[in-house]
Amino acid sequence: MSAMLPPENTSADHQPATGPSFTLAGCREGVRLMLPLVPGVIVFGVAFGAAAVAKGLGFTETMMMSALVYAGLSQMVALENWQAGWSISSLAALALLTAAINGRMVLQGASLQPWLEPFPRAVNYGQLFFLTDANWLITERYRARGGHDLGVLVGAGIGFWVIWVLATMPGHLAGALVTEPRRFGLDLLMPIYFTAMMIPLWKGRVVVLPWLVAGAVALVSSQMIGGYSYVILGALSGALAGALAPDGSEP
Amino acid sequence: MSEAATLGVMVAIGVMAFVTYLCRISGYALMRYVPLTPRVRRGLNVLPGCIIISAIAPIALRGGTTALAALAIAILVMIWRRSELLALVAGLLVVTGLRAFGL
Fold it and tell me: What is the complex's ipTM, to 2 decimals?
C-alpha cells in the first residue's frame, strides 16, 4: 500500500471518503487512541516483571517473554504454572494452556479479516504479530465509525508492545513493588475498558440476541468447564446466533 | 545444570511465542477461505461485541457487587460522554472506593 494520505477529516464520526490506506497519520491516530490505556499497561507490565522474578526467571528470559509472546494474561498464567525443568509433556501442556488463553485472538483476527483483506498478505502476517486485546478493540471502534486506515491497528499495536516491554524491565529490577494491584482496581481495568467499548459497538436490535446468547453461553461454560475456553465458546455461539438470525433487521 | 535449565526456559518461551503467533494469524488466515456470504457477514458483524460480552460476563459475576458497580458506571459514563478514558477512570474510582470500604 502506498502512503496515500486521506484528506483531512475533522469530523471523526463520518465515514472518510477514501478507501483502505496505511498511513503514518493513521499510526499516530492509533497511538492517540491507545493513550487512555497506557497507565494500565504499565502497571500490568511491571506486575508481570515482578512476578517473573518471584518465579526465578532471569532478566533476559523475562524480557524475551514479554517481547516475543506479548500477551499479558497468558504470560501471567504461564508463570503460575511455571516448571523448574521442562519435559516434552510439560511443554505440550504449556502450549495447550497458551492456546486456550489466547484462542480469543483467532476470533479477533477473524472479525478483522474483511477489513484487512485489501492489504498485502505479507503486511498482514507481519503486523498481526502485534495483535492484542487493546489494539483490536481500538480498531473495532475506529472501524465502526467507518475508518479504513490500517495504521490505527499497527500504530496502537506497536505502541502497546513498546510500553509492555519497557514496563517489564522496572518490574523485574525492582521486584514486587506493585504488591497490591487489586487495591486500585487494576485487575478490573481491562473488563471496565471492554465494557465501555460495547457502547460504540451497539448496532441496534441485531446485536441483542447474539449478545444474550454469547453472555449466557460464556456464563454457563465458565461455571461448568472452568479455564478460559468460555470466551471462545460464548463468542462463537453469539456469532452463530447472529448468522442464523433472519435477514432484514440490518440497516 | 543451569545451562540446561536456561535452555529449557528458552524453549518454553519459544513454544509460547509460537502458539500465540499462530493464534494471532489463524483467524485472518482461515477466514480468507470462508466465502463472505450474507450469513457469514452477519456473524462477523456481531462477533466483536460477542467476544467482549463472553470475556466480561463471568468476570463481572465473579467480581461481585464491586465489579458490577464498576461496569455499570463505565457503561453509563460511556453513554453520557462517549469517552472511554472517562469511563475507565470512573470505573476504577468506583472499584478503589468500594474496596477501600472493605467491599
Answer: 0.83
Would an 8 Å CB–CB cutoff place A105 in contact with chain B?
A: yes
Which residues of chain B have a CB within 8 Å of the CB of A109? 23-29, 31
Q: How far does CA A238 lie from the centroid of its chain?
A: 19
One-character DSSP codes across A19-83: -SB--HHHHHHHHHHHGGGHHHHHHHHHHHHHHHHHTT--HHHHHHHHHHT--HHHHHHHHHT--
Q: What is the pLDDT along chain A (251 residues), one digit of tens a residue?
A: 344 444 444 444 444 547 899 999 999 999 999 998 898 888 788 878 888 887 889 999 999 999 999 998 889 888 877 888 889 988 998 998 899 889 889 999 999 999 999 999 999 999 999 999 999 999 999 999 999 999 999 999 999 999 999 999 998 887 655 556 666 676 787 788 888 888 888 888 889 999 999 999 999 999 998 777 888 899 999 999 999 988 654 44
Measured between CA atoms, how close is A160 to chain B, in angstroms? Answer: 16
d(CA B50, CA A198): 9
Give the distance from residue B64's alpha carbon to the nearest chain A alpha carbon, in angstroms.
Answer: 12
User: What is the grid cell recorded at B46?
Assistant: 456481531
Note whether A99 and B23 are within 8 A (CB). yes
How far is it, in rounded angstroms, from Cα A197 to Cα B68?
Answer: 16
Chain A hits for B36, Cβ within 8 Å: 114
Q: Give contacts of B30 with chain A, Cβ < 8 Å.
A: 106, 110
